[in-house]
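Q: Hi! First time doing this. I have a protein sequence and I read that you can turn it into a structure. Is that right? Here it is:
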Amino acid sequence: MMNSKRDETTKPTVLKYECVFDLFVSGVVERSDVIGAIFGQLEGLLGPELELRELQKTGKIGRIEVDIKRSRNGVQGIIRFESGLNKAETALLAAAFETVIKIGPYDAEVKLKDMRDLREERRKWIVQRAMDILKQWQVKSEVSFQEMVNRLNEMLASSEVTYYGPERLVCGPDLLKSDEIIIVEGRADVLNLLRYGWRNAIATGGAKVPKSIIELSKKKVTIAFVDGDRGGELLLNALLDSADIDYVARAPENKGVEELTAKEILSSLRNAVSADEYKRKSMEQQVKIQSQPDKVKQAYDKVKGTDKVLILNKDMKVLIETTIKDLLSSLQQVQGGFYLIYDGNITQRVLDLASSKGIKTIVAKKVHEVIRYPPDVRIVTME
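A: Yes, that's right. Below is the predicted 3D structure, encoded as C-alpha cells:
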C-alpha cells in the first residue's frame, strides 16, 4: 500500500527536506528498475557535487524509496527521498528527478508532488515531546507530594491511637472525653476517622461485639458507623441486638469506612438515622407477597425466576418492561409509575431512585443492605 506521507508521530529525521514525486510508467516495471533508471539517467547530470551515489555515501541524502502498484495502463507509484542539502541544491536535485522519462523500455513521467521542510516536523515533535515530559514531571511531583501528605497523616493518626478495655480495643484519644462515640469495625476505620479529625471512634475488632463496647454504649450517645456491604450489615445487626445504639450511619454502597474521604464521612454521619427509626421502618415497610392483592401476585409470577422488570401504574398497566441490568436507567425515564416489580434485590440505590420517581410499592425478592427507608415507599418481599 502506498503512503505519500510519513507517520508524524514517529521520531523525526536529522535531514532537512523531503521530496515526494508521483510516478507513472506505461508498462510493468519493478522497484529496482525505477531506482536503476534514476541513478543511470542522473549520473553526471549535475556535476560531481550532486552525484547521487556520493551524496548517499556522505549522508547528504537518504535512501531513495519507491512504492509502486500495477494499474490497467502500466505502473503508478510514489518516489521519495530526504535531503540534507540546502534548499537550492535540493530543488536542483528534485528538478533532475523530473528529467527521468524512460524506465526500461517504457515511457515514464516523474512529477514533484510535495517538498516538505522536515525541520518544521522536528520542531513540532520537540514541542509535543516537551509537553509530554512536563506532564509526566508534574504528575510525578504531585503524586510524590500527595504521598508525603498521606504518609504524614497516617503517622500522625497512628501516633494518636490508644486502646480501651481489657480487650485493648483500638480507639481515638477523645473516646472517654466525648459525650458521643462512633463505633466502627476495624483499626483502619479508626485511623481514617482520626486522619480527618474524628477522634472519638472505637473499633469492635470484628463482627462480634465486645463486652467493653456494650457497657460503654450505655453511658454514651453511640453511632454505629458500618461499611456499605454485607459485612457492614452483619455488624450493624449484631450491634443493634447487643449494644445500646442511638444512631445508624453507613458508608456508601460497596465502600468501607477505611477508604472514605472527609466529605464522604461527613455526608454519611449527617445522614445517620435513629436506631429506633431504622428498626421501625425496617419492620413496617417490609410485608410478605402473600398479603398482596391477586393482581400484584400475578405480576410477580410473570417475572419470577427471570431478569425481567415491570414498572406499572396505579391501575396495574405496564408502563415499562425492561431487565434488571437496565433497571436504574429505566427508572430514570419513567413517569406515572406506582409499582416496581422484579425478582431481585432491593438496594439503597434502587429504593432512593424509585422514591424520587414517585414509585409507591416495590415488589422484589429481598432487601439488601438498606439503612434509609423513604416513608412514601412500601416494600413487598418474598423473603
